[in-house]
Amino acid sequence: MSALAATNEVVTKALLRQVNVPGLDRPAALITLDNGFDHTKPNTFGPGGLASLDEAITAALAADPAFIAVTGKPYIFCVGADIVGLPQLADRAQALEIGRLGHRVFARLKDSTVPTFAFVNGAAMGGGLELALHCHYRTLSGGAAALALPEVSLGLVPGWGGTQLLPNLIGIPAATQVIIQNPLMQNKMLKPKQAAELGIADILLEPADFLERSLEWAAGVVRGQVTVTRPEVDKDMWAGVLYFARETLNQRLHGAVPAAYKALDLLETAKDGDFAAGTAAEDEALADLVFSEELRSGLYAFDLVQRRAKRPAGAPDKGLARTITKVGIVGAGLMASQLALLFARRLQVPVVMSDLDQSRVDKGVGYVHTQIEKAVTKGRMDKNTAAKLYGLVSGTVDKSAFADADFIIEAVFEDLGVKKQVWAELEKIVSPEAVLATNTSSLSITEMAAELEHPERVVGFHFFNPVAVLPLLEIVRGERTDDVTLATAFAVGKQLKKSSVLVKDAPAFVVNRLLTRFLGTVFAAVDQGTPLDVANSALDPLGLPMRPLALLQLVGPAVAYHVGGTLHAAYPDRFGVSENLKRIADSGQPIVVDDQVNDEVAKLLVVGDQPLTAEQVRQNALDALAQEIRLMLDEGVVAEAQDIDLCMILGAGWPFHLGGVTPYLDRTGTSERVTGQRFLPRGAASLPA
């Protein structure tokens, strides 16, 4: 314990008080977890926090309470282990010690002869959720912001009982989803209602009087007036579910995420119910993974998403931002319609769409209404909110409706001439202070604004599809974009709950430039004669979210060909133009069907006689990424390599275990071999030398 105490920990205190509950003949012991900060710095457990909880449990038991309950400070239950301290562990023995310490303290609640309750009042993740699982009963607030066991996304496993308790509580299919599938899906969180339906909580309560109702419910359980029933867990399907899960991981990750496979092994151990053996296996797995490169990359990626994304590098003073009272959207296609719904939901201001004819406008507004109806039907939106949104979103063919809009964004065809014409028409209508934002994916903001009277209020506002899912927003500063416009763009991005990254006005910005170079290299191998299936599977060892051809299909071959042409014009020596890609785009046929190459598409190709091996394709793609990233950093497209990684994680779904892009290129030696230097200091997202 003394060695562990050396870590730089913000200690979460376990504060004990006695609470008189009506109907009970003696007080209950209520333990509140609180690190002394507000909700922006959540409770976590390091050695000091575990020691404090241990002491509180001892004191609670000594008072002979009617029951023991654990809850958290406002909005936060506990978000797990103090992961900041993990890299400070000196050796495997210390890693084992922290695992065993957590197990020993939490087990006191599980093994207690006094009834124990978790009053999950707010966010509960990782070790926080595992603490709740150790309690005999759980209440859950409907206002809890996030519930998850996200460890696999970081390169770890739930190491304080989660892999053993959860499957025996909610069954192996649901536990596999929570422990493995959700973390690998952009770290998907459970909503309170979902958690309750899975059986993680025994009762879901309203947030307004959550603590009072939890105490009342717990008293009913203790008095025998409330009976908690839980469905029996089906053990017969255990092996089949895990076999299917392993096969799915093999197809998707190809062995690239050791933590996911370790988690499967631990879930298998949980079947026989030997809790001591299962938790001992968790300790060993945790100790192995703490000193892995994947964990270091995962922690680096986590820090980017949780910290850097909330403080964008280079963003101007937020006090310069203008207030937005109305939004105009030029276009009513799918992207424009998605934007209309997002702006209306997040900003709660009138949003008006325009297009060339009434049928397109009606289709766009109809899409928004349909999505609202679906949200109501699925219980994700109440009828009052829906009614308000119906009233906020409208459409017109008359652009004069934009006259009083403060923020206008265009989502029209990706053609510079078309976009310049749009802004030339609108500048005569809108106020001089209105921000003009473009959702262009590759065109120059500076050129787009060059002929306007007020080019300083034009800014790039590049979303990623699907708009509601991908959190990245590339905010592009043209040569004449002023600080007020930029500050307003960042303020709007924050209101939209997007993670904004400041990008220089350079062709295709960050994500599309890198993906185009990446896909271009893979497709160049096809042009040389490499079979489509070989090129498509070449990057499998990285464990990317999808194979290159599936990504190409998602982007759209026509869009990829267009963006590739833009980049070829700017950088002809590095970005080629593939006639085979044009043939595929013109055919309109899917490239892959059920993750298999479409034979009909393969017949369209005209290829050379110099096929590459999968290893050659992979290395060429990685070399190209390393070269392009170094050039982008030298050009000042973003402030630092960390912004490249943040963009690729949030905009392209590149996994945490890679740390985005640059840590992997550093770890494999690619960056030094190609560019002569690392992107990050040694130890920043990797093990120390």
From TrEMBL:
Q: Could you identify this protein by its name?
A: 3-hydroxyacyl-CoA dehydrogenase NAD-binding domain-containing protein
TM spans (from-to): none
Q: Which family does it belong to?
A: In the central section; belongs to the 3-hydroxyacyl-CoA dehydrogenase family.
Pfam families in the record: 3HCDH, 3HCDH_N, ECH_1
Q: Which CDD domains match?
A: crotonase-like (cd06558)
The protein's annotated catalytic reaction(s) are: a (3S)-3-hydroxyacyl-CoA + NAD(+) = a 3-oxoacyl-CoA + NADH + H(+)
Keywords assigned by UniProt, alphabetized: Fatty acid metabolism, Lipid degradation, Lipid metabolism, Lyase, Multifunctional enzyme, NAD, Oxidoreductase
Q: What metabolic or biological pathway is this protein involved in?
A: Lipid metabolism; fatty acid beta-oxidation
Task: Please report the organism this UniProt entry assigns to the protein.
Answer: Micromonospora zamorensis
